[in-house]
Amino acid sequence: MADFFGKMKDTLNKGVATVSTGSKTMIEKSKMNSCIKTLEDEIKQLSEIMGMKLYNYCASNPDGDIPRAEFVSFCAEISGRNEQIKQYRAKIAELEAEMNQVTGTAASNVPVTCTCGQVNSPGAKFCAKCGKQLF
Predict the structure, then answer these.
(1) Which of 23, 26, 90, 114 is close enough to 127 for a disulfide, judged by CB 3.0 to 4.6 Å?
(2) pTM for the whole thing?
(3) Which three-class secondary structure string do you get for 100-112?
């Protein structure tokens, strides 16, 4: 009977940890996705401004050279925002990996390593070497 309650307690603790981590992960992912959306909107605006500047310059100076420095600065700003987006996406992937670890679910293409050292196929529930349940 004590074993039953011990397992019940472990299950409840795992459930609480999953809900707690899941809600924190969801909030953080939502914030980061919002930042990504803002950066993507800024990239779109910068691209439109750059395009209009180029069009206006070419329309008013058909034989003139394009003022390269001005457009290089636009490109640098866009590249900076793309780098920020890349960093946010990497953080989101880290959060998802952390959540998978807490919930005991492995990403579908990630091998699962048992405490005995055996590397098991992705999605395995039990170790192929020692038979221990994988989390």
Answers:
(1) 114
(2) 0.61
(3) HHHHCCCCCCCCE
